Amino acid sequence: MSAAAQIKTASRPVLEMRRISKTFGAIRALQDVSLTVHAGELHALMGENGAGKSTLMKVLSGAYKPDPGGEILIDGTPVATGDPVKARAQGIAVIYQELSLAPNLTVAQNIFLGNEPRRFGIIDREQCNRRATEIIARLGVSFSARTSVASLSLGERQLVEIARALSTNARIIVMDEPTTSLTSRETDRLFEVITTLKSQGIAIIYISHRMEEVYQLADRVSVLRDSGYVGTLDRADLNASRLVSMMVGRDLSTFYKKDHRLPEATRGVALSVRGMSDGNLITNCSFELHKGEVLALAGLVGSGRTELARLIFGADRRKAGTLELGGKPITIDSPREALEAGIAYLTEDRKQLGLFPDMSISDNISMGVLAKDATAGGLRNFAAAERRAGKAVSDLSIRTGSVQANTGSLSGGNQQKVLLARLLETEPQVVILDEPTRGVDVGAKSEIYRLIDNLAKKGIAILMISSELPEVIGIADRVLVMRDGTIAGEVTASDGEPLRQEAIMELATGAAQR
After folding, report:
1. Looking at residue 173, what is its pLDDT?
2. Which residues are CB-neighbours of 242 under 8 A, at least 6 positions away?
3. Does the first or last residue of the chain, that is N or C, have fewer Cβ atoms within 10 Å of its Cβ?
4. CA neighbours within 13 Å on the CB side: how many for 153?
């Protein structure tokens, strides 16, 4: 009997959400969705952005009240809905992708923030620290209850959020994309904690776009699509083809897009990098990127992929190295000079370093080419900017009702396409894409793959950094593998055979040298 089957037969579900619907005006965000979760189970919830996952969890947490006809049961008993305080009292906790900690406070103060133990009406600091110590001991962490949160890594802060949930005696914990900003080591630690929580009988609802995590952790997976429930798979029935088909309604064979022709040498070198070093991590990196080619930079976290890209783009100061663009030597000491030369860079951190979420889609797209919209008198031609944005929205299939909508209101995939639209307005010869599909859903990934393929067809040279090996193999023509700040080797397809994950990992880990 599978682990999922054992869970289902062992006890009554700790959580049942029945016939949950939610409308906002004329918009149907959820339609007749049901979900069943058992104690000690990790139940993954998957679907594209906009499928209804977040709305369903907000109904569970009490942030939204469901439409009449739906109900939530805890241990078989109907409970109140639409009240966050009562939801917490019923043992429901949600850990969102954007952490809500106060960095200037200690771990203990964050764990009990708003719910501090008191003595004679005054906050009892000693009891707060003692209880926090007991809670974090359940997680096996290395920091103390008196540690300042500001000194913790992102992975450790994630554990503080879990400890906060445990302080409220949570029996059902929702984790929304918990590994998005974690290193591989922090992710492994989180997974160990999740295993511990499951062994303590806590039910976990896990929202993630990363299939490898779902394969590793999930006992069962439920899929939403277009605001409705598609189905649930047991662990034994999980496979990529079936999951993708359920999430986006099409077969995995159409997921990746690589129709552009691998460039011949006669098509020319777009970018030549020689001896690039930063005097710290990056050492003597050299390679060539051809027109119309998708060249991937792969490697483990900390191998230097982003650092090398930032040196090329002039975002960081190099100690040594030269660049040639189209066979001509160029000097790039700043991002502005890179853009003027014809090199564009898509940052891996679109929220902190790329987007202006409170500005319109039109303004975000035009940000890099404001001079194009200047009139003879030096004023901005807003109509021209709006026409340009409208064409970009159409060309890149950005889902929005208006180019004047705030960019922050878009899904992650559509925000990423807004950034791509901004880059393409600069008419680059070379595009550097750093984790272009990070944090976006499966459907948006497929659309971004098609955009990359279309850019290559137009002769644009693409340098892509990705931590997802299936993605690298699916869309790249060649792979350069970095290790310890240098290029450890190159992986190419041969004799009609595809790129091999094993060859990439051997170079990334140094196994190829042993």
Report:
1. 93
2. 233
3. C
4. 15
DSSP string for residues in 285-304: EEEEEETT-EEEEE--TTSS
Tokens of 419: 């950034």
CB 258, CB 286: distance < 8 Å: no
Cβ burial, residue 450 (10 Å; 0-12/13-18/19+): middle
Instruction: Name the 3-class secondary structure at 465.
Output: strand
Helix axis angle for 184-199 and 125-139, nearest 10°, is 100
**Do 240 and 472 touch, CB atoms closer than 8 A?**
no
Is 277 in the same domain as 128? no
How much is the pLDDT for 1?
A: 40
CA 250 from centre of chain: 22
Looking up tokens 């993630």, which residue turns up? 208
CA distances from 488 to 285, 323, 481, 511 (A): 10, 20, 6, 11
CATH for 73: 3.40.50.300
Which of 154, 169, 184 finishes a domain? 169
Tens digits of per-residue pLDDT, 128-157? 999 999 988 888 778 899 999 999 888 888
Q: 441 and 333: one domain? A: yes
Place of tokens 């590994």: 179
> pLDDT (tens digit, 9 = 90+) per residue, 470-490?
888 888 999 999 988 999 999
Using the 3D structure, point to which of 425, 443, 469 is the last residue of a domain: 425
Range of the domain at 360: 354-425
Q: Are residues 181 and 85 both part of a single domain?
A: yes
Using the Cα atoms of residue 489, residue 492, residue 495 and residue 499 in order, give the sign of their dihedral: positive
Q: pLDDT value at position 376?
A: 57
* pLDDT given for residue 4 in this prediction: 47
Residue 136 belongs to a domain: yes
pLDDT of residue 382: 73
Q: Which segments of the chain have a pLDDT < 70?
A: 1-11, 49-50, 181, 248-255, 262-266, 350-353, 368-381, 495-496, 511-514
